[in-house]
Design brief:
Organism: Paenibacillus rhizoplanae
Distance between the termini: 51 Å
CATH topology: Rossmann fold
Number of strands: 7
Protein name: SDR family oxidoreductase
Number of domains: 1
Order of helices and strands: EHEHEHEHEHEHHHEHH
CATH superfamily: NAD(P)-binding Rossmann-like Domain
Keywords: Oxidoreductase
Helix content: 40-55%
CATH architecture: 3-Layer(aba) Sandwich
CATH class: Alpha Beta
Bound molecules: NADP nicotinamide-adenine-dinucleotide phosphate
Strand content: 5-15%
Number of helices: 10
Enzyme class: oxidoreductase
Radius of gyration: 19 Å
Structural class: alpha/beta
GO molecular function: oxidoreductase activity
């Protein structure tokens, strides 16, 4: 049912996957979506009724200032109902060899960039009593071999999400974490391409130790790309988080996420180690 009063919603990383599906879902519901993209060609592709592309690179503070300005100067004076912190990348490689600049790139985009978006939009969120919806991952609950760098970013976002929620609750800003499991998007392919590039940097010794792990990471990412839920399902969960009158602090998206987020709280580390290593055929 379309809502009668339009409000603004910001979604970052809308060129593809979950971000694009979310922008489309929220626009269909009647929100005016400010859709973050990095390239003009992606802006041209996503532009339509209720979707206004905005050039946003979460690592570029000038683009975030321009976004905040766009929100505050809205010609119709619409309130900012929510910011969906979705943009992300995946750097997958064994920890003993991952180049530190690649680690920094993961953190820059998936942690510092997310906080930069929150900081830029906080004045508007305070004004409107808006919501922050952070897109986490089951990787922020459980750290699989080969995915430690990505998980480091997503675990960090869990901490940031929880502190922010506790800091802002008395000021009318609700902070919600969405935890998807495997989702069929281009992220898997991007992660595989990065892993293949990084694999070439290994020494012969590292190859002996980690070739199998690289194969497992690739196979796992391919499984998520093939069998993961559709990004539209995650978009529907994000929509709930924005609409629910009294939203939960976190929502899972996908059965794998619902199961793993519970298991990780009750299973001992050594059993989880065996499960994960066996799932990735590393035993
Ligand atoms: N796919 C999964 O299985 C899965 C599972 C759990 C959580 N997630 C999370 O869901 C979110 C969306 O991922 P997705 O699966 O939809 O992947 P995706 O299709 O690869 O989308 C990632 C989006 O982030 C954008 N992005 C990357 N770097 C950026 C930057 N510096 N500034 C602004 N935007 C940037 C990309 O834009 P460009 O096209 O310009 O690169 C793209 O629009 C991520 O936070 C991811 O960690 C995904």
């Amino acid at each position: 049912m379309p809502i009668k009063t339009q409000a603004l919603v910001v979604v970052t990383g809308t060129s593809s996957g979950i971000g694009r599906a979310t922008a489309e879902q929220l626009a269909a519901e009647g929100f005016h979506v400010l859709a973050g993209v990095r390239r003009q060609e992606d802006a041209d592709k996503i532009k339509r009724e209720n979707i206004e592309p905005v050039i946003v690179d979460v690592t570029n503070i000038e683009t975030l200032k321009a976004l905040a300005e766009r929100v505050v100067q809205d010609p119709l004076g619409r309130p900012l109902r929510a910011v969906v912190n979705n943009a992300g990348i995946a750097v997958n490689a064994p920890l003993e060899m991952v180049p530190l600049d690649e680690f920094r790139r993961q953190i820059e985009v998936s942690v510092i960039g997310q906080v930069a978006v929150i900081q830029a939009l906080t004045p508007a969120l305070l004004n409107s009593g808006g919501r922050v919806v952070n897109i986490g991952s089951v990787g922020g609950k459980i750290s699989m071999p080969g995915f430690g760098i990505y998980s480091a970013a997503k675990f960090a976002m869990e901490a940031i999400n929880d502190s922010l929620r506790r800091e802002m609750s008395s000021f009318g800003i609700k902070v919600i974490m969405i935890t998807p499991g495997g989702v069929s998007t281009g992220l898997s392919e991007q992660g595989i391409t990065t892993a293949e590039r990084l694999a070439k940097l290994m020494t012969p010794d590292q190859h002996r130790r980690h070739d199998r792990l690289f194969d497992s990471v690739k196979a796992q990412a391919e499984t998520w790309a093939k069998d993961g839920i559709r990004p539209e399902k995650v978009a529907a969960v994000i929509s709930r988080a924005i609409h629910d009158r009294n939203p939960r602090t976190r929502y899972t998206a996908g059965r794998d996420s619902a199961l793993l987020t519970r298991l990780v709280r009750i299973l001992p580390d050594k059993l989880l180690d065996r499960m994960l290593r066996s799932q990735m055929k590393l035993q």
